[in-house]
Structure formats: C-alpha cells, structure tokens
Design goal:
The protein is of the alpha+beta class and 219 residues long. 21% of the residues lie in helices and 35% in strands. The protein has helices spanning 16-22, 46-53, 104-116, 168-172, 203-216; strands spanning 2-3, 9-10, 57-68, 71-79, 90-91, 94-96, 123-128, 132-133, 138-147, 160-167, 177-184, 187-196, 199-201. The strands form 3 sheets. Strands 3, 4, 5, 6, 7, 8, 9 and 10 form an 8-stranded mixed sheet that branches. A 3-stranded antiparallel sheet has the order 11-12-13. The radius of gyration is 17 Å and the shape is globular.
C-alpha cells in the first residue's frame, strides 16, 4: 500500500492522469543552477559538502514514466563502466547541457534519444523537479515525462550498458527503502537506496527518486 497524492492510502496503482495533475503546476526553472540541497547535508562529511557547494554545470535528466498494461514503471539505465562521470552506476537518461540546447529540458530529451532511442515526440513532458547538485559538479534538473508506445529501446552501448524498468508503485512504497551506510574521509553517514530485481539504485538517482516521491505524495 502506498499513499495517494492526496495524502491518504490507496490500494490501486497510480494512474498517469494523477501524475499529470500533480505536476501540472511545476515549471522549468528560470536558473538551472539554482539548486536545492539534500536534506541532512549538515551531517555529511565536509569533503562531500564542498563538492555540492562548488561551481556547478547545468544538466538535465529525464524521469521516464512508461505506461505499461500492468501499470506505470520508471525507466533507468546502467551507465557504461568507462565513462568519466557516474561510471557503472544506475541513472536516468540525461547529461550535461550543451551550447546548442535551448534549455535543460531540451538537454534531457536530446540525451534520452541518444542513449536509449526514445525520440522527443514520444515523451509527454508533464513537469519538473527542483534542480539538485551532484558531487561530480552538476546542477541536475529532473524532467518528468510520460512515455507511450515504446516496445523496445535502441541502446547506445558507448554510454549505456542496458536499460531496465522498476514499477512505480515499488518506488513509492517507503517499506522498500534500504538504509545503507557510506563512508567518506573516515566518516560514516546513512543514505537511502532502492534494491529491486538485482539492481541497486543509489546516490544522486536515489535522491531524485525520493524527491519525486515526496513531491508526488505531497510530503
């Protein structure tokens, strides 16, 4: 059981129309470098905090919500191990903003087509989350999009090893949160991860999913 967008419990799967309605009031940020810091930042090691507070580059990712017969799912990618940033990690399709991109929305859609073959016309952009910093020096704006009619993906193996889906209801259920200890500069701190079907979703991607859930469920 997960909470509904009105704050009460629901036993049924979340519908695309409910998602669209909840995100209807969100807008693309005027300044993609205007980031919101993660909660509990004061307890993080100084070295990590410095990375988040340092100079940042604008980036955009797509949070792709796929409409399947059995319900909504979230598309994620396993990044190639040779990449400079976030190598070998689970992430949303996306990347750094380039000069020819009109905005970070265009960045997210361009990168999604390049990485997994979903064209911009297949994405119904329904909203945005606040931009957030990563320890690799990016200010990432998550763009939320509904995707229909995608039976298969065209993976760019130079950037992505494979793509996979996680049921949205699984990610919305707090009982599936996994508290994990991390260590940096000899100091331990705790972060939430998601583990599903052998996949580990952690770091910036897990934080974006938590922000998505908190906004969606109005917490």
């Amino acid at each position: 059981m997960v909470s509904s967008i009105n704050g009460g419990p629901t036993d049924g799967p979340l519908a695309a129309d409910a998602l669209r309605a909840r995100f209807a009031g969100t807008r693309l940020p005027d300044d993609p470098l205007d980031v919101v810091m993660p909660p509990g930042l004061s307890r993080w090691p100084h070295g990590l905090r410095d990375k988040l507070e340092g100079p940042l580059k604008p980036a955009g990712v797509l949070v792709p919500i796929i409409e399947r017969v059995e319900g909504l799912s979230v598309l994620l990618t396993q990044r190639a191990s040779h990449l400079k940033h976030h190598a070998g990690q689970v992430s949303f399709p996306g990347g750094s903003m380039e000069k020819h991109d009109d905005d970070v929305r265009a960045t997210a859609l361009r990168e999604t087509e390049e990485e997994v073959g979903i064209a911009p016309h297949q994405v119904d952009v329904i909203g945005y989350l606040r931009s957030m910093p990563t320890i690799t020096g990016f200010a990432v704006t998550p763009v939320v999009g509904l995707i229909r009619g995608v039976a298969d993906f065209s993976i760019d193996r130079t950037e992505v090893e494979y793509a996979f889906e996680v049921p949205l209801d699984y990610l919305l259920d707090e009982r599936n949160d996994r508290l994990c200890d991390r260590e940096y500069e000899g100091r331990k701190f705790r972060l939430i991860e998601f583990h599903h079907a052998g996949e580990r979703i952690w770091g910036a991607t897990a934080y974006m999913l938590l922000a998505f859930r908190e906004y969606l469920l109005n917490k």
